[in-house]
Known about the structure:
The protein is an alpha+beta fold. It contains four helices and four strands, in the order H-E-E-E-H-E-H-H. It is 43% helix and 15% strand.
Amino acid sequence: MLVRSRVHRMGYRFRLHAKDLPGKPDLVFRPRKKVIFVHGCFWHQHQKEACKDGRQPKSNTGYWSQKLARNMERDAANITSLKASGWKVLILWECEVLKAGSTLERRIRQFLG
């Protein structure tokens, strides 16, 4: 919701969760052929060292490692498919959205042109 309201305030208009696109991107800018995914650090395994939410649980490791690895594989396949279709993709991580202020807006403006 933070990203959606911020992008709207910046003057950009978008559609949500386009079912016809791989991975159902969070924000879709069809005329620009650009999409934004807002990934949760835990579910999509944010690999940045500073992100503490991207760590795998220490209990039931067999289940979680398999589940989270499958999520990452699916993300990679969706992004590859979108790029092959001519779409440009921006991934925003939950921890970046919560901490970033003007940096986030700058990244979005730079991406959307």
